[in-house]
Amino acid sequence: MSKTCPKCSGRMEQGFLLELKDGNQKAATEWIEGAVEKAWYGLKIKGKKRLAVETFRCGRCTYLESYAPEA
Ligand SMILES: [Zn+2]
Question: Whole-model pTM?
Fold first, then answer.
């Protein structure tokens, strides 16, 4: 799957953004519905819709564009 860059019309390649904490790999970034809700253990995500995020990068201007398709 390839897309065309909306900024410069270059070719965009699919990838994803990785969440790093203290240099350790955690997981690919996800889209969570609604506003941020804080909880004592971190951020509240239970019961919220979660989708994997696909991020495309333009090989010409390096612009990043993200999509969260329905699972
Ligand atoms: Zn571009």
Answer: 0.79
